[in-house]
TrEMBL record, chain A:
GO terms for biological process: siderophore-iron import into cell. It comes from Paenibacillus nuruki. The chain crosses the membrane at residues 57-77, 89-108, 114-138, 145-166, 194-215, 235-262, 274-294, 306-323. This is Fe(3+) dicitrate transport system permease protein. One of its GO terms (molecular function) is transmembrane transporter activity. Its main location: membrane. InterPro entries: ABC_BtuC-like (IPR037294), ABC_transptr_permease_BtuC (IPR000522).
TrEMBL record, chain B:
It comes from Paenibacillus nuruki. GO terms for biological process: siderophore-iron import into cell. The keyword Cell membrane applies. One of its GO terms (cellular component) is plasma membrane. This is Iron(3+)-hydroxamate import system permease protein FhuG.
Length: 331, 339
């Protein structure tokens, strides 16, 4: 296995390169010198600086934070449910958050970011409750795979509700459809502040929970034997997932499959110690989503493509691979 | 004697379902943005009524109702056959990737080809090709010493996600018209006229009776693997032919109304609970159940918030998804009891 510090340095370097490229690349190309000049001293008289400040910088930061959030949420879910197919999108948490957020924007069109984030949390909470109830009702058998199937059905149900809501609001429907595909174009600085705040809270909580997650990942009996309070860990873990996924969805819409792929990548590279998995997953998630975001600018250049479409096209084949492997190991 | 009672019961159920279908048709003609009285409807059919109302009835409501019945029975029979020949209770146009593939095929024809090259036949054809590709992808990818039902469903979900993402991408690139997006991704009967009825009717009217005539062969697939293998090569041929018909029925429906969820998955289960005695009965019952589900979903979609209307596919998902969860739960419970 690669030494951890080499992995950490390389991945942070890659992230930095991608971050800078994401500032440079777009419908108008901005040189590296201008970007560095902007980062050192921002001036409102230079046109490129304004583009960077208003459009590219918040977007790049949002993508990094949200990539990290979704990946960490995915890690926690996979550890808690001991289910390699678990992730915020597969279990319908993104869909639940989207539903509440769309409902909120339609009932109160002039709503602020904090309320939307709250709506996202509420939607996530409802979905987590449904999934928990289902997992209590259905035990035994190939529970991992069955849970994923239930999650997908709940997701289908919730997104039907969301799209049903769109009918009531024809004017902003096309904007909401774009948002529902997951897009970071047009993120504002106020939203970044909110995102940063909740991301830091979620991240700190996740790291402090990581030891318990490693133990639960060994098996519930072992964890209980080692003095873990399983239900406390489950509840705290679910709260973290709701906060991280809810705030992300409220800002860029539901972005699928990041939370599914990155935890697998991370465990492959750093092992199953969640004290390492969680921070690394954060960095890898940031890398993946920044990369997908850069890619999304080229699909239909110079027009934008929602980044969620890119992640879905990368993630769905990976899900097939996991589903195949999953049923082999359990049969 | 028992058999005779069973037959009688089956016939009564078919009769009840037919009456229910007719009732829903009548309600469906009546409700909508404009409520039309029975008297006006009667007058319209003998060409004596108010000209506007007659136009609404004959050119908007009637084709729509017929289309709902055609699509519902097409999807339901397609699901029934798929579940039987693959011996998989979770097989259906949606989980086999047929719907998403067909939608992708149809949407790419509609959006990418120049208008003068387009025709309803071409759309149906590309939908069929897309559906066949989707089905082969799902079946191929989930094959590993046979096909496990739940694995098939998961792979189908992923392949469908890919397909509908590509549909979304195509639509976002070419137009941002809300109705088109909702229509293809959810299935809608909005704005459908006689032209679309003519596009789908031949397919359903030819293929569904053929499947009904093949009911005996369908029953054979329900036997154990060994006894059906004893019948030799013919059964593999039969499987291939029936699978082809499944794809034709489902992609024909999707080409006309977009992706309608859960009808093909849920109706066969309801049909099998209602009647016994083989596919001679379950094929027509599934077709009726599918038609009723579509008609009901369409009526609900129109009366919830007039003059707005919900796409029929949204309503079928909202009805079908909980039922599907219930099926999973029951299947798990029966397995648990047996083990």
């Amino acid at each position: 296995m690669i030494p951890k510090w080499i992995l950490a340095v390389t991945s942070l370097a890659i992230l930095l390169i991608l971050f800078v490229s994401s500032l440079m690349i777009g419908s108008s190309w901005i040189s590296l010198a201008t970007v560095i000049d902007y980062l050192l001293h921002y001036s409102t008289t230079v046109k490129e600086h304004i583009i960077l400040h208003i459009l590219r910088m918040p977007r790049a930061i949002a993508m990094m934070l949200i990539g990290a959030n979704l990946s960490i949420a995915g890690c926690i879910m996979q550890a808690l449910t001991r289910n390699p197919l678990a992730s915020p999108s597969i279990f319908g948490i993104n869909a639940g958050a989207s539903f509440m957020i769309v409902l909120c924007t339609i009932i109160l069109p002039t709503v602020n970011g904090l309320v939307l984030a709250g709506a996202g949390f509420a939607g996530g909470l409802i979905t987590v409750l449904i999934v928990l109830i289902m997992s209590l009702a259905i035990r035994g058998g190939k529970v991992e795979v069955r849970m994923a199937l239930i999650g997908v059905v709940i997701q289908a149900l919730l997104s039907s509700f969301t799209q049903g809501l769109l009918i009531f609001n024809e004017e902003s429907a096309s904007k909401i459809i774009f948002w529902l595909a997951g897009s970071a174009a047009g993120v504002k600085w106020e939203e970044i502040q909110l995102l940063l705040l909740f991301s830091i809270i979620g991240f700190v909580m996740a790291v402090s929970l990581s030891r318990s997650l490693s133990l639960i990942n060994l098996g519930e009996d072992i964890a209980r034997g080692l003095g873990q309070k399983i239900w406390t860990v489950r509840i705290v873990g679910s709260v973290i997932v709701i906060v991280l996924a809810g705030i992300s969805v409220s800002i860029v819409g539901p972005i699928g499959f990041v939370g599914l792929i990155v935890p697998h990548m991370t465990r492959y590279l750093v092992g199953t110690d969640y004290r390492l998995v969680i921070p690394f997953a954060g960095v890898f998630g940031a890398i993946l989503l920044t990369l997908a975001d850069i890619g999304s600018r080229f699909v239909n250049f110079p027009a934008e493509t929602p980044v969620g479409i890119i992640t879905a096209l990368i993630g769905a084949p990976y899900f097939v691979y996991l589903a195949r492997r999953q049923s082999r190991s359990s049969s | 004697m028992n058999n005779l009672i069973g037959q009688k019961r089956n016939l009564i159920i078919i009769l009840i379902l037919s009456v229910l279908t007719c009732l829903l048709m009548m309600i469906s003609i009546q409700v909508g943005a404009v409520r039309i009285s029975w008297l006006e409807i009667g007058k319209a059919f003998i060409q004596r009524g108010d000209a506007d109302l007659t136009y609404i009835i004959l050119h908007y409501r009637l084709p729509r109702i017929i289309l709902a019945i055609l699509v519902g029975s097409g999807l339901a029979v397609s699901g029934l056959v798929a579940q039987q020949i693959l011996r998989n209770p979770l097989a259906a146009p949606d989980t086999l990737g047929i719907s998403a593939g067909a939608a992708l095929g149809a949407v790419s024809t509609v959006l990418l080809l120049p208008v003068e090259m387009q025709s309803t036949w071409l759309t149906s054809l590309t939908a069929f090709v897309g559906g066949a590709i989707g089905a082969s992808c799902v079946y191929g990818l989930s094959y590993r010493n046979g096909v496990d039902p739940i694995r098939l469903a998961l792979v189908g979900i992923a392949v469908s996600a890919c397909g509908s993402t590509l549909v979304q991408l195509l639509i976002i690139q070419s137009s941002t018209n809300t109705n088109t997006v909702l229509l293809w991704l959810n299935g809608s009967l909005w704005g459908r006229h006689w032209e679309q009825v003519m596009q789908l009717a031949p397919i359903i009217i030819i293929v569904v009776p053929i499947i009904w005539l093949l009911a005996k062969s369908l029953d054979i697939f329900g036997l154990s693997e060994e006894s059906s293998k004893g019948l030799g090569l013919r059964i593999e041929w039969m499987r291939a032919i029936l699978l082809l018909m499944t794809v034709i029925l489902a992609s024909g429906s999707v080409a006309v109304v977009g992706m309608v969820g859960f009808v093909g998955l849920v109706s066969p289960h309801i049909a099998r609970r209602l009647v016994s005695g083989g596919h001679r009965y379950s094929v027509p019952v599934a077709a009726l159940v599918g038609a009723i589900m579509m008609l009901l979903a369409d009526v609900i979609g129109r009366i919830l918030a007039p003059p707005l209307e919900f796409p029929v596919g949204l309503v079928t998902s909202v009805i079908g998804a909980p039922y599907f969860l219930f099926l999973l739960w029951r299947e798990y419970k029966s397995k648990n009891r047996a083990g």
